[in-house]
Design brief:
There is one protein chain. It is globular and about 55 Å long. Helix content is 72%, strand content 0%. The chain has 8 helices and no strands. It folds into 2 domains: 92 residues, Rna Polymerase Sigma Factor, Chain: A (Orthogonal Bundle); 76 residues, Winged helix-like DNA-binding domain superfamily/Winged helix DNA-binding domain (Arc Repressor Mutant, subunit A), CATH 1.10.10. It is an all-alpha fold.
Length: 173
């Protein structure tokens, strides 16, 4: 069932359609929150808040990109989380990693890449995570972040260049 069909059902009062939306997007939203907060329990709480907020305002939802809309809510709630926690300090990526494979090499690589991501500005980091990890298009990221597509592409390019510079001198086996 498509997002549009689910939303149509939700607007007519179908509670099962809401459950289906949560089932479809919960893991993606949690993973995004975890990427930004680095805290398992806090990420679960924020993810719950994302869906509670969505349910509360679902009648006013008119977007065509449901996942993007949920990611916007998640991004805003993560920023609120850091404002409350750090008095407005920048978003920090997690120091821990959820590993889905049992490979030590994979764990080491994930730690290495997450460490590199910490070294780039948050605006570039968000674009890189949304583009590579969430596989969103530049135009969708631009809508989410409220900026034009050339800004998003520039942030992505600068972030990748910065990551390359940070990788210089490291040898991956």
């Amino acid at each position: 069932m498509t997002d549009k069909e689910l939303i149509r059902k939700v607007h007519t009062g179908n509670k099962e359609a809401l459950n289906e939306i949560v089932r479809m997007y919960y893991d993606d939203i949690y993973r995004f929150c975890f990427y930004l907060t680095g805290h398992d329990a806090d990420s679960y709480d924020i993810t719950q808040d994302v869906f509670l907020r969505f349910i509360k305002y679902v009648d006013s939802y008119t977007n065509n990109n449901l996942k993007g809309y949920l990611l916007i809510i998640a991004r805003n709630l993560c920023r609120d989380y850091f404002r409350k926690k750090n008095d407005g300090a920048a978003v920090v990526l997690p120091s821990e990693v959820i590993c889905t494979e049992n490979s030590i090499d994979n764990v080491e690589l994930q730690f290495f890449l997450k460490g590199l991501l910490k070294e780039i500005p948050v605006e570039q980091r968000e674009v890189i995570v949304l583009r590579i990890h969430e596989e969103l298009k530049f135009k969708d990221i631009a809508k989410m972040l409220g900026c034009n597509i050339s800004t998003v592409k520039s942030r992505f390019r600068l972030g990748i260049e910065r990551l390359r510079k940070e990788m210089e001198g490291f040898e991956l086996e």
